[in-house]
Design brief:
This protein has 2 domains: 2-42 and 123-147 and 183-242, no CATH class; 49-119, no CATH class. It has 9 helices and 14 strands. The chain has helices at 16-19, 28-34, 49-73, 96-121, 165-174, 178-182, 203-212, 223-231, 236-242, and strands spanning 2-5, 23-26, 39-41, 43-45, 79-84, 87-92, 123-125, 127-130, 133-136, 142-145, 192-197, 215-216, 219-220, 233-235. The strands form 6 sheets. A 3-stranded antiparallel sheet has the order 1-10-3, with no helix packed on it. The longest helix is centred in the middle third of the chain and has 26 residues, at 96-121.
Length: 243
């Protein structure tokens, strides 16, 4: 997933101690257009009951899938081959008395899994500990772009959602920039509302670097794009003072 804070620019200074003093503020309207279906606000929970309900729904989906597997494995129908969207599938024809039940189980297993994982992906505790201090996560107004489970990341990797703690820790240590390079967040100059730097003294040197910038997200920049970027630069000092 990719996370965002949907907060007023005037509140950005208070988050700098946690996330750093450089930031790019993107247009929410444009992100919703580009990533609709994948982008949404986080649901903050104060009780684990909603989390448990989502996981119970996921278990129901797994049970329906197991029932479906039993029916298909027990089928004694003739072997058939089907081509769907360029892929070839082989299996056995189901008897009429099993076909309707199998279809219902198929759709239920998919729907239960989709609804449960969609809920889980947008859940976050209302408050938690950060560096042994209590923090109110709700203040961040987090939004997320979330890939569905088993979505294709590249030719060899599918998006995996459910990990053991050791699997996740090992992935965090070894990932470096692999995932970011495989699935970059793409945006244009027009998508940027502000570019935030720590202090006013850093702005001139930062602008020099922007003027030399040749590309953004793989797209070549023209002079008008560079001038537009320059106009969006603002410091945390200015934000604290003026907003």
């Amino acid at each position: 997933m990719i996370s965002f804070c949907d907060i007023p620019i005037g509140n950005s200074a208070e988050h700098s101690s946690k996330y750093g003093q450089y930031a790019i503020a993107l247009s929410k309207k444009k992100l919703l257009l580009d990533y609709k279906g994948a982008l949404g606000p986080v649901n903050y929970f104060t009780s684990l009951s909603s989390v448990k309900a989502a996981f119970e729904l996921r278990e129901e989906g797994k049970k329906k899938k197991q029932e479906l597997d039993k029916i298909t494995k027990a089928s004694s129908g003739k072997e058939i081959t089907m081509d769907i969207k360029g892929k070839t599938f082989k299996g056995k024809a189901l008897s009429p008395e099993h076909a309707q039940n199998a279809l219902q189980l198929f759709f239920k297993s998919i729907n239960y899994h989709h609804f449960s994982t969609q809920s889980i992906s947008l859940m976050k505790a209302y408050q938690s500990l950060h560096e042994n201090k209590k923090q109110i996560n709700y203040d961040e107004c987090e939004w997320r772009i979330v890939l569905p489970e088993n979505a294709k990341i590249n030719d060899n990797i599918l998006c995996k959602w459910f990990w053991t703690e050791n699997e996740y820790d090992n992935w965090r240590i070894g990932r470096k920039d692999k995932f970011i390079n495989d699935l970059p967040l793409l945006f244009s100059v027009d998508d940027i509302e502000y570019i935030i730097v720590p202090t006013k003294e850093l702005i001139p040197n930062f602008i020099k670097r922007l003027i030399k910038l040749k590309m953004i997200c793989g797209e070549k920049l023209e002079d008008k794009d560079r001038y537009s970027l320059v106009s969006k630069v603002i410091s945390l000092e200015q934000i604290k003072r003026d907003f």
